[in-house]
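Annex B. Sample input.
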Amino acid sequence: MSPFDANHRRHTSFASVFVFPDVENEIEIVIDEKDLRIDTYRSSGAGGQHVNVTDSAVRITHIPTGIVVQCQNERSQHRNKSMAMKILKSRLYKKQLEEQELEFEK
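Annex B, continued. Sample output.
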């Protein structure tokens, strides 16, 4: 059943897309390691025997803000962690911009 169909009909395929800003390396977002909780777990979905035996998926929780990001796109835990950190940085940057905008409106 498709979660994207208001009539809850069965579809052969559907996709969900999340768009996040690509933070350039010139933008400095400081993340303290002690503010992070990093969990690893087994990926779900297709991938054969590899996903059944390795904890390659990564979930990172930024404790001060409560922002949670996860990545299980790659086979490598290191690449998933790198991508999750990139997503976290972009979300923290977006949050910082929103806070600055609120201050500017005051």
